[in-house]
Amino acid sequence: MNLPYKFISYLFFAFISLFYLPVLSQNQSTKAWQINGFKKQDAVNPILTPDGQQRFFCPILGKMVAWENKNVLNPTALIKNGKVHLLYRAQDSLGTSRIGLAISEDGIHFKKMPQPILYPEQDAFKKYEWPGGIEDPRIVQSEEGNYLITYTSYDGKTARLCFATSTDLIHWKKMGPMLTDPKYMDLWSKSGAIVVKQQGSQLIATKINGYYWMYFGDTDLFMAQSKDLIHWNVLEDAENKQRISVLQPRKGFFDSRLVEPGPYALIQKSGILLIYNSSNAANFNDSAFPKFTYSAAQALFNLNKPYQLMQRSNKPFIWPNKVYEQIGEVNEVCFVEGLVPFRSQWFLYYGTADSKIAVATSLQK
Fold first, then answer.
1. pTM across the whole model
2. Is 184 helix (H, G, I), strand (E, B) or coil?
3. φ, ψ for residue 29 (rounded to 5)?
């Protein structure tokens, strides 16, 4: 029996709608909550490179050192007085890390300050910071307008999550380890991203249900909460007293080896957006990338339950495909820690091959 042409057409489009439109809708909704469209600024990248002429007197070694002659990498960023301020990690020839400051009118061309602004000293925190140094800062503002950075202190054995505060970005008060419970003091806690809201060009730490929240760790991501941004408690399972893991590596994906926080976690209408760094495992990984490739992706958490994962991207939005990202101190690395709203765009600053610093931009919606 011959069916009418219109009826056959109807059945065909009904079939397409049944099986394909849900997929398209899902893909569109996945894109809707992410910050999309980042473009690497190839004409100027890398925007920051090591400078052997930058020297300062190291209070521990007791002599002048070229504090960034080996590598510059993994910066955080914020907007102050209409300018981009980049706080970046720098390594000397011995591998000790310190934090430098560079300032830009346009977000691309930076002028470095000659001295580091945060570094190991002969103080109570030397035992956490020497000889590895102070690594990988992530900065937010408090509601009072002060600055807080989380950073990694590395004693050569354990990477602890520490923090410091400032009123001017130049003078910093070290606060020591963020996780002071003896249970966690000597664990590898590494890095932390605090939940913020955007107010113009400012990114301000904000309470949810009476607490500030922070994603931390590298391998799995865990969480901590605080009433005052100073004293932090790790979220634990009430039964087994173990840390609650809220984001994990996935076999078969680009993030099969580890996950680690990006710049901060941003409150949006759709939830809490966390840009995260990841590494590809040696096996059972994403074969599109070399093993141990560092790339970045995005995850969305529940706005009222920051520990509840809602969505997660299945592909990275930035990965190494430039020579300066693929070859360096550590090959195949794009490591994201700086993100600022500037001149109607998002400026994303990241470390490349653990050696240099680059930028990618995306229009703000």
1. 0.91
2. helix
3. -70, -35
